[in-house]
Hints:
heterotrimer; A: alpha+beta; CATH 2.40.50.140; elongated; B: 300 residues; mainly alpha; MetI-like fold; two-stranded antiparallel ribbon; 12 helices
Amino acid sequence: MARIDLVDLAHSYNGDRAPTESFALKPVTMTWRQGGAYALLGPSGCGKTTLLNLISGIVTPSRGKILFDGRDVTPLSTQKRNIAQVFQFPVIYDTMTVGQNLAFPLKNRGVPKGEIDKRVAEIAKLLDLTADINRKATRLTADAKQKISLGRGLVRSDVAAVLFDEPLTVIDPELKWQLRSKLKALHRELDLTMIYVTHDQTEALTFADTVVVMHDGRVVQSGTPAELFEKPEHTFVGYFIGSPGMNIVPAQVSGREARIDGHRIALNRSYSGLNGGKIEIGVRPEPVDVAAPAPDLLSAKIERIDDLGRLRFARVRVGEVKLAARVPPGFSRQGDIAGLRFDPAHVHVYADSLLVEGTA
Amino acid sequence: MDKTVNQKAWFLVLPVFAVVAFSAILPLMTVVNYSVQDTFGNNQFFWNGVGWFKELLDPTSDLGGRFFASLWRNLFFSTVILLIEVPLGILIALSMPREGWQVAACLVILALPLLIPWNVVGTIWQIFGRGDIGLLGYALNSIGVNYNYVANDIDAWVTVIVMDVWHWTSLVALLCYAGLKSIPDAYYQAAQIDGASRWAVFTAIQLPKMHRVLLIAVLLRFMDSFMIYTEPFVVTGGGPGNSTTFVSIELVKIALGQFDLGKAAALSLVYNLIILIVCWVFYTVMTNAGAARPRKQGTA
Amino acid sequence: MSVALDHVTRIVDGVATIRDVSLKLESGTLNVLLGPTLSGKTSIMRLLAGLDKPTTGKVMVDGKDVTGIDVRQRSVAMVYQQFINYPSLSVYENIASPLRVQGKPKAEINKRVTEAARLLRLESFLSRTPLQLSGGQQQRTAIARALVKGADLVLLDEPLANLDYKLREELRTELPRIFEASGAIFVYATTEPSEALLIGGRTIAMWEGEVLQVGETPAVYRRPETLRVAQVFSDPPLNVVGIQKLNGSVEYAGGVKAPASGLYQKIGDGTYRVGFRAHQLEIADGQTGRHAFPATVTVTEITGSESFVHLHRDDANWVAVLHGVHEFEPGQKLDAMLDPDSVFVFDAGGRLVASPGSA
């Protein structure tokens, strides 16, 4: 159990004399509370695996410190940090049974046999592995093997944090659901700090209480799934989260309205002084409805309509800009031109990719 | 994947058939023929049926006695060198660097003994061990060790064994290194996290992941050492006396020394059979070890 | 050009990986092979390509039997899950390679390569080697190479499975456009129902080597002919419950009784199984005519625009999906509501007897 503090933590694989801009992880200061479920979310190369490796101790940071419960663990090796890690592919000891695999970390620490057996039985029950406890570990399916990997981490009662590095990569899609729910249920039961690295927003948003979105080595935004979804602070967050992602449209904004292509869109808040730089409005596809063309609606050309079963999305084009919009259940397509209706409550304004608050 | 059948391919194989028939099958048939005859090679043949084979397998007869003695020597030799070369090879593989320019340097140094023609290896050690002009022989004698591989049985054995270890350990080391390199880093990280000692890492991760490669290494080394001829022949000639006379050397003595072609043919056939059986056993063990894992049925 | 499989069976090591499959694919069509892993999708594609031979049955192209003919003589291109490109050649050379093998003149190669690169948005990467590209770009190179060949049959085996989530999304929206521009027969294998829905075209639902249903994708989605098809074509997993109808009322397994309203009016007395997708299970109150199931929440998964509520009810696990962010505490008891007009009813043999929108 540990509170994790990152103090001005940064890392470069080219030595710490390299320019900060080229760092794999740019300086970050954050606190992760004990027992929290965190997800590090971002595309390949965003620095999330680097951050995870810094926390687990596999990599020593070029700059900054890491504290567990106030204690500086930066100089400590992985072993001494008391963390558990689950990797992308199941890591199990081939020659041992499931039970022996689970017992291994305790055996190495000299825990008495009676206690080992008790702990192993407990964890096996938690992970639904009791039936297989005496089977050779290599015979099990991939998701069972991942559970064993996880179990080896949980079996130590003093573990500070459990780190997951894209653990569902090799799992079959039907079983991903089960394992995801299991991880979430485990988190609630065990009150451990869990940190989960992934590029899949569904995994991140379903697992974590707090999602840390990373891009190009920087922490772009950190918040609850609802916060990230409703109010992205950076256009990258808007684009990356949500399927389809947020529409980002260049516009002129002044007062309570935005102008796209000469057409006015009402805004909920008032903005002033937005003249220089890159001004854009961001709005998710869901609050944008497709309707029959009308003079008071922004005109757009429909390129295609995607039927996703429970939802329909239209891909439309306004001038050069492509947008995605929701197709309401009653809509039937007449020709190629449609009108777009925007819900002002969900339209955000961004200057140079950062959210502008505006006044009420 | 089963390719669609195309009979024209057989024509491409004909030249190979012809060559193999000429250089291998016909001579083999000749040997089989000789093994059931009594001949000294001057085209005079006296039918002997399974006579030679009976004599061969009878330890009390002259032929049988020599055969079994040399067979035991071979087995002893193979066992000893396996016991030395395999752990030594593993040790070398474990100590080799994983990345950087040192890797290439090590690989080249390891490969050198493997590239030397076998009779040159024999010659190297023959001179190396001589008491008068050989570095090893002279050095040993000057520090008081009475080393003479020509006269002393044990010295001869030690020389032959050390020579083989020097020659072939690199092969085991290279194979093990390849096996080690294929282990993903995550396993070592997991072992670190689990607090495993160096020995536990070796027994729980490295050794199991190397077992296929080790099986190949053991198979190769056993076969090669069981067939060994050139190196010991050049160094000791089978002596002193017949203390280092392996089956191959015995065979040559009978065939080319005594020209007793019938006996030699029978001996070579039995020798061949033993090697084939050992290989088959190894192969079965290897494929069964692979089949113990759950097999996926077809593909999605 | 049309490709057909005629009662094809393939047996490997005594196991039938493909069982009596007959399919006909017309040119200019998009065909999705949808099914879980090991359902036979890759085997079918390999049979269509000519990489494998069927144990029994025939493969026909334009009515002619091509079963014995080697893949090299067929007009086929294939894209795999692992982006397979020639690592030492530039992107341009990679895309040009099939044309060079065909011996086409330089001007034509240049024209077709630039066109394929434009279609897949690779123009600025033509001089790079595959290892200098991201996963998405590498896969686009592989797709461009498959397209430039001008093959009549293009096979894609879960091509997006190894890509990052967002890249997958981007490529997924571009693929239909790319396919339509080409005119060949496309066969796209996937395990994800949402990909099938996005690609459109026709869907071939598969399970354990058998073809369960073939039809226009929305039609297969809305009217799965069997319980299996509904399960294959649902993500999150389909919720299923047993039901008994007798004398104008129904009883669900686990003891919930209700009048036989909605679709239940159309079926006779007997035992059935009812399947419904996650979005057909409601949690909000205020709708009339619903059947209520007391259930316990096990976990809620929030993805921002949707919340997936996992429920435990009568020894079965159900999933409901709600719009927006909804938090339920694990262990919380609530009533899950089912609209009897929006379920799939399957008879004891798994065949569809009633569905929403059926007459």
